[in-house]
Give the backbone structure.
Amino acid sequence: MSNLHYTLPVIWALIIGLAVALYVVLDGFDLGIGILFPFFPEEADRDLMMNSVAPFWDGNETWLVLGGVGLLVAFPMAYAVILPALYLPVILMLLALIFRGVSFEFRWVGKPHHRKWDIAFTAGSIVAAFSQGVVLGGLLQGIRAENGQFAGGMLDFLTPFSLMCGTALVAGYALLGATWLMMKTEGEVEQRARKIGVPLLFALLGFIALVSLWTPLQIERIAERWFTLPNLYFFAPVPLATLLLAWWCWRGMRQGNDIQPFASAVGLFLLAYAGLVISNAPYLVPPSITIWQAAADPSSQVFMLIGTVILLPMVLGYTVLMFWLFRGKLRPGEGYH
C-alpha cells in the first residue's frame, strides 16, 4: 500500500470524525432544548429557551452535511453499505430535523396560536435525537456485508441495543440542553434547568456504563481491544476521566456555576465518542470493512480535500465568531428573533 493510499483515508476519517463530534455537541444542546420543552410549560420560558439558541441552530446541521458528503465521496463503499442498513432511521431523522426547523420558524409567526408548533418542535427534537441514537447503535452492533454490499435485512438495526442507544442519546441531548440553559439564561428557566440537570446527568452515566458493559460482552473484538494488555493500561484513563467530568458537572450544577456544567457535559460526550472510536477503529463498517477497504480512488479524495481544506477553517471561524458575538446570558423578555 502506497503512502497516499494509506494516508488519505486516515485524513478523511479524521475529518468525518471531527464533523460528527461537532455536530453532536453543537446540535445536541439545540435538540436538547426541544426535548426539555415539556418541563417548561410557560410561554415566556419557552420563548427564552428558543431565543437562547436562535443565533446558532440553523448553522449546526452544516456538520451533519459535511459528515454525510464526506462519507459518500471519501468512502463510497461504506456509504453504500451503511445507508441501506440504516435507511429507515436515517430518513426518520432527516424528516424530524426538517419538521423541527419549520416549527422553529413558524412558532413565532403563529402566535398566539402556536401550541401546535410547540408540540411539533418537541416531537421533532425527540424523534431526531432517538433516530440518531438508533443509527449509532445499529452501526456499533455491526452490519452484515458481503463483497462490499449490504447483505442483511431492512430491520436488522432494530434490536434492544439500538433502542437503548436511542434512549441514551435523548437523555444525553437533554443534559446538554439543560446545561446550555444554565449557561445562557437567568431566572426561573436557569433554576429549573439546574433541578432537571442532576437526574439527567445520572441517567447519562447509567447509559454510558450500560454501553460500556454491553458492547464487550456482546462483541468479542471490543472486549479484546479494551481488556487485553497492554491496551488496558492505555485506555483505563477514559472511564476514570468520565467519572471525574461527571463529578465536575454535578458540582457545577449544585454550586450555581454557569459555564462548568456545560463544559463538563460536552467533555462527557467527547469522552464517550472517543471510547466508541477506540472500540471500533479502524473499522468504518464494523466488523468487516476498514477505512482503507472502503476508500475511494485517491484522485477523488484529493479533489474533495482541497475544497475541504479551504472551507473548513471558514466554517470553524464562523462558528467561533457566532459564539463570541452572542456570548453572555439572556434575561427574561430578551431575544434575537
User: Anything to note?
Assistant: The chain has a mean pLDDT of 90. The CA atoms of residues 15 and 308 lie 9 Å apart. The longest strand covers residues 283-285. The chain has one domain: 3-325.
